[in-house]
Design brief:
Layout: E1 7-10, H1 20-36, E2 39-44, H2 54-67, E3 76-77, H3 82-94, E4 98-101, H4 105-113, H5 137-145, E5 151-154, H6 156-167, E6 172-175, E7 185-188, E8 198-200, H7 208-218, E9 223-227, H8 233-243, E10 250-254, H9 274-279, H10 284-291
Parallel strand pairs: 1-2, 1-9, 2-3, 9-10
Antiparallel strand pairs: 4-5, 5-8, 6-7
Bound molecules: glutamic acid (GLU).
Glutamic acid is lined by residues 11-13, 45, 212, 226, 230.
């Protein structure tokens, strides 16, 4: 190992069984690690204490081992590092860039319903309509002292402004593959499309966005490989990295595996899990071949439609 050796990670969330989409992502990550002669880490993203299960973590280890992935130990589990995310949140607080949001989902939904044409974020969720943003400091303190639960949101307009100031130029990142809209090369960040994102959820006091940038920096990740569904999340990640003075990784977003109807596979839709495929007698080589990984080298295949057939 050399000190400037690239570091790459596969970071699944144990909220269900892995499916072919995860297999593609894991194999893509392994190929990239080989191509870059990088160390390969596995990170378990289990901050969601309700949806994540120990059994799914064991399932991830079993599935990845079966696929032939080799990763370094110990494996970082996000649920063991809430203090690190709390420290990052404090820095954002100290910069005056976050505010408590007491609004419930229902309140947000009804506020949005009164505004036809209200913008949606890249995930299709209506952009936060700003309900708790105008509360006075006194009101915020009174409501939190009364025990009212709150999430913490990033004031995106201010965050982007400060990030640009710190960076000394518009914030960008380098995309080595492409985004859903064909974005490639140096991509200019426009995090305003997300509105005031939640950086700390009501229940766990952190969020995917915050935990992922803290961990990528802590683990020295130089190259992030993941699906195109997270391409636009990178806009938020880059803003947070600049504000928290964290290093900028290189990004490689791959295409998603889709079913015959063109839908991406999902855990909730109970797409055939790797465990079920394995138990039906399918081998890891079959999966690799079906996903187009039967070639050696650095030529990443494009995901085939309906690879299980
Ligand atoms: N944990 C995320 C997922 O399973 C991936 C996070 C990332 O690669 O940035 O979708």
């Amino acid at each position: 190992m050399t000190s400037n050796q690239p570091v790459i990670r596969f970071a699944p969330s144990p909220t269900g069984e892995l499916h072919l989409g995860h297999a593609y992502s894991a194999l893509f990550t392994q190929d990239k690690a080989r191509e870059l002669d990088a160390r390969l880490l596995l990170r378990i993203e289990d901050i969601d204490l309700v949806r994540c299960r120990a059994g799914f973590i064991q399932g991830i280890f079993d599935d990845l081992e079966w696929l032939g992935l080799e990763w370094e130990v110990p494996v970082r589990r996000q649920s063991e590092h809430f203090a690190d995310y709390r420290a990052a949140l404090s820095r954002l607080e100290a910069l005056g860039l976050v505010y408590p949001c007491f609004a419930t989902r229902t309140e947000i939904k009804s506020a949005v319903a009164t505004r036809p044409g209200h913008p949606r974020d890249p995930d299709g969720t209506p952009v936060y309509p700003g309900l708790s943003k105008s509360l006075s400091e006194t009101e915020r303190e009174a409501r939190s002292a009364a025990g009212e639960p709150f999430a913490v949101r990033l004031d995106m307009a201010r965050a982007q402004r400060l990030a640009r100031e710190i960076a000394g130029s518009p914030v960008t990142f380098h995309e080595h593959q492409r985004g859903p809209g064909g974005e490639t090369g140096d991509v200019k960040v426009d995090a305003a499309i997300w509105g005031d994102v939640v950086v700390a959820r009501k229940d766990i006091k952190t969020s995917y966005h915050l935990a992922v940038v803290v961990d990528d920096a802590f683990q020295g990740i130089t190259d992030v490989t993941r699906g195109q569904d997270l391409f636009y999340a990178t806009y938020v990640h880059r803003i947070l990295q600049v504000l928290l003075e964290l290093p900028e990784p290189q990004y490689h977003h791959h295409e998603l595996v889709r079913d015959t109807a063109g839908r991406r596979l999902s855990k909730s839709a109970r797409d055939q899990s790797l465990r079920a495929l394995r138990e039906s007698g399918i081998t890891a080589s079959d999966i690799k071949a079906q996903l187009g990984f039967n070639t050696k080298g650095t030529d990443h295949p494009r995901p085939k439609k309906n690879p299980a057939e």
